[in-house]
TrEMBL record:
Substrate binds at residues 82, 88, 120, 151. It holds the Pfam family Ldh_1_C. Keywords: NAD, Oxidoreductase, Tricarboxylic acid cycle. It comes from Subsaximicrobium wynnwilliamsii. SUPFAM superfamilies: LDH C-terminal domain-like (SSF56327), NAD(P)-binding Rossmann-fold domains (SSF51735). Its EC number is 1.1.1.37. The active site is at 175 (proton acceptor). This is Malate dehydrogenase.
């Protein structure tokens, strides 16, 4: 299994590190436009191999796509992150051009690859890859829901004063401060609904904290987060590489599912060797469906800014 990660910055390097530590890929190629940067990150990471006990070979290249040839999975993290006070949508002006060029160069060298889009605004960047390449829709996947769900579980565990391993929950919808739809009614602690343990008001607070999870970290860090994003991507790559058929909320092109079409937005999917093996339709309450439709409107508004 060969994986390429474009962008050797905070998220790209974290992603390469987690993939290597999980030890399922034979090779990870890190590519960046900044001269020598990916080479340096790759060398530093390789010097952790004997300490962390992995055999994955990580190489770094400066904009040389020939080295990415025949990648099974390509992850796009290239682009600018937001600063405190900004929204993800404000990044579209710079990131759309980067994602368009990068995805076309990747596909030229790996026509059978599966692409995972991370750069923000992620749902719109995923849609852009659909619109500007000829990859089949099962092979273009946006990462947002896996991360947002991890943050949701963290917040639920905090509220319930429970270990995170006891908690299950999922966030669907757009990967934006207002667009996320944390499925509070479906969340459980060891199969018991979380509403049995905390008040409605506390659960509402968990929901709000989850939705602004990225903004909260951006305010603390001065730039956006990287550990959980890298870990989330690595879990998705592993599910594909190892054909795990695991369920993750991912941003995928919808054609009528959840009553939505012609946009990419987070819904539960099964990930395996073919990328998106299946979109999982679940019954939403009226309030959740309404929130999902509002979220879709927001994503479509951002999509309309694309020059395609
Ligand atoms: N979807 C998510 O859940 C999620 C999570 C975290 C971050 N992000 C997004 O991921 C992106 C990267 O964030 P980061 O913190 O790693 O930023 P960063 O600035 O640390 O790294 C970005 C890297 O991309 C490189 N780059 C820029 N243009 C390039 C090009 N044309 N080709 C190759 N490399 C190029 C830069 O040189 C830089 O090293 C941002 O857009 C951020 O908003 C998304
Ligand atoms: O918050 C951001 O801008 C980065 C990313 O989308 C995140 O959720 O951490």
């Amino acid at each position: 299994m060969k994986v390429t990660v474009v962008g050797a910055g905070a998220v790209g390097a974290s992603c390469a590190e987690y993939i290597a530590i999980k030890n399922f890929a034979s090779e990870v190629v890190l590519l960046d436009i900044k001269e020598g940067f990916a080479e340096g990150k790759a060398m530093d990471l390789m010097q952790t191999a004997s300490l962390n006990g992995f055999d994955t070979k990580i190489t770094g290249v400066t904009n040389d796509y020939s080295k990415t040839a025949d990648s099974d999975v390509c992850v796009i993290t290239s682009g600018i992150p937001r600063k405190p006070g900004m929204t993800r949508e404000e990044l579209i002006g710079i990131n759309a051009g980067i994602v368009k060029t990068v995805s076309s160069s990747l596909i030229e060298n790996s026509p059978n690859t599966i692409i995972i889009v991370v750069s923000n605004p992620m749902d719109t960047m995923t849609y852009l890859v659909h619109k500007t390449t000829s990859l089949p829709k099962n092979r273009i996947i946006g990462m947002g829901g896996a991360l947002d769900s991890a943050r949701f579980k963290y917040r639920l565990a905090e509220a319930l004063e429970a270990p995170i391993s006891d908690i299950d929950g999922m966030v669907i919808g757009g990967h934006s401060d207002t667009g996320m739809v944390p499925l509070t009614a479906h969340a459980t602690r060891n199969s018991i609904k979380v509403s049995e343990f905390i008040s409605e008001a506390r659960l509402e607070q968990v929901k709000e904290d989850t939705k602004v999870g990225g903004a909260t970290l951006t305010k603390l860090l001065g730039t956006s987060a990287w550990y959980a994003p890298g870990a989330a991507v690595s879990s998705m790559v592993q599910a594909i590489a190892c054909d795990q058929k695991k369920m993750f909320p991912c941003s995928v092109l919808l054609d009528g599912e959840f009553g939505l079409k012609d946009l990419c937005i987070g819904v539960p999917v099964i990930l395996g060797r073919n990328g998106i093996e299946k979109i999982v339709s679940i019954k939403l309450s009226d309030a959740e469906q309404k929130h999902m439709e509002q979220s879709a409107e927001g994503v479509k508004k951002t999509n309309a800014l694309l020059e395609i």
